[in-house]
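Progress report, Aim 2. The chain analyzed during this reporting quarter is listed below.
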Amino acid sequence: MNVETDQSEVQGQREAPEQPSSEDHQVPAAGQPDFQKIPSLAIQVITNPIGFYQEMPRSGGLLDPLIFMVILSVVAGVLSAVLSTMGLGLGGAMAGGLIAIIMVPIFVVIFGFVGAGIAYVIWNIMGSQENFETAFRCVAYTAAIAPITAILKLVPYLGSFASALWPMALLAIASIHVHRRSKQASWVVFGVIGAILALISVSGEHTSRQLMSGMDDWAEIIERQQQ
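Predicted structure tokens for the chain:
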């Protein structure tokens, strides 16, 4: 019996690192969304968008960002509905908020993929080598601002501006830090798109306010005639 060999074996067993048990190290199941991370991700997108997009995984599937986008949009719809019941916001917001709560999952899926497709084309024209999944992730996480813009809509036209310009600012940051495009080109491209969307959004709100004002006038006239 070789005493030196036995001693080396014993010493090796003592020095060998302990393997973590399944209780100490639990790996989430593949494809299982982590709902607990959604609030912290939303806060990071809002407070530190540069850091968020610098660290954002470019792959990992579409499910997590899609669920993030749907949940944040539903929260925005609920806020709009609640504020309208308090008499706040643009007239008719309650109906719009309730419809949004019901229909938002469908529309978010549709417009989320359409918006990501448009962004993907734009980034390809700008010379990005990233794939559609990366573009979708960049677009999906801009939904973090949806609850805030829903509240900002209490102020006439402010919510319309924020809803148009803020997402484009986030996409400009994503263009710089994810797609590695130049700062100047990124801000010019998405700044122009944001300006166009803001003009459309503000014009739509102005038209809506005029229609609501006209309906209120007609209601007053009818009420007077009935008296």
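Residues 101 and 167 are 21 Å apart (CA to CA). The mean pLDDT is 79. These observations will guide the mutagenesis work planned for the next reporting period.
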